[in-house]
Amino acid sequence: MGRRKGATTCSILSGRGYFLTVGLVETGWPAIGSNDFSNLELEQIEQVNSMTTATEHLYVVTDNFILGGEPIIKGTRTPVRAIVEIYRSGVSAEEIPLRLPHLSLAQVFDALSYYNDHPDQINAHIERNRIPENIIDPLTKSV
What we know:
Number of domains: 2
Number of strands: 5
Order of helices and strands: EEHEEEHHHHH
Helix content: 25-40%
Oligomer: single chain
Largest sheet: 3 strands, antiparallel
Distance between the termini: 50 Å
Structural class: alpha+beta
Shape: globular
Strand order of the largest sheet: 3-4-5
CATH class of the largest domain: Mainly Alpha
């Protein structure tokens, strides 16, 4: 497929084998649906990598293209809120990597530390993602 100017989004296969959809404005990147990314310039790839914003925590970042900018564990799509919710359910921090094996204990503790520093932000994400009680099947509530 040819290139087209002014595309609004584009999917790129990352080094980890995931497709990344990014916003584009007059870049000349391949059109959506194209699998030919061999002509991407290093500068364009670096633009994609720079969309992740570091926080004051080593393992916690934000990226407007992942979960709408919600704080996540660096290199994953795991939100800090997920770790906090597991911890709140009574699972010890040391046990969380057993349930989320792609995370290290250091990442878990950093996520909990981030929550301690930003409770209002994470609580807002938890509330925004809560499933309303009235749509939960009563048979699953006892599980």
